Predict the structure.
Amino acid sequence: ALAQLPAVQARRIYQHYILGKSKAEIAAAEGVKLPDDQVERHLARLAHTTDDSTSSLSRDFDAGRVGEMELFSGEAVRMAQAHGIDAPVTCRYYEGLKERAAAFSK
């Protein structure tokens, strides 16, 4: 199904799949029961986005604001580490966000 989508949209959906699976594992370790189809429902919403669709975090970054970075990415990384969960994509995503955010204070 991804092969039928524009490249930017397909890449976005795949990245969200990996991030969603990682965050679902973290949620389970935290004792949070997510619906079994949580990741798939999120991906279904993404399938209706366009190549120029952006997230609130992306819009915050475009405006030079850190926004929800720590709440959604930083906290997920810290929880994964606390539970010994290997979440390399989540960690790389967060590191990239921190690098980008560092430019805001310059």
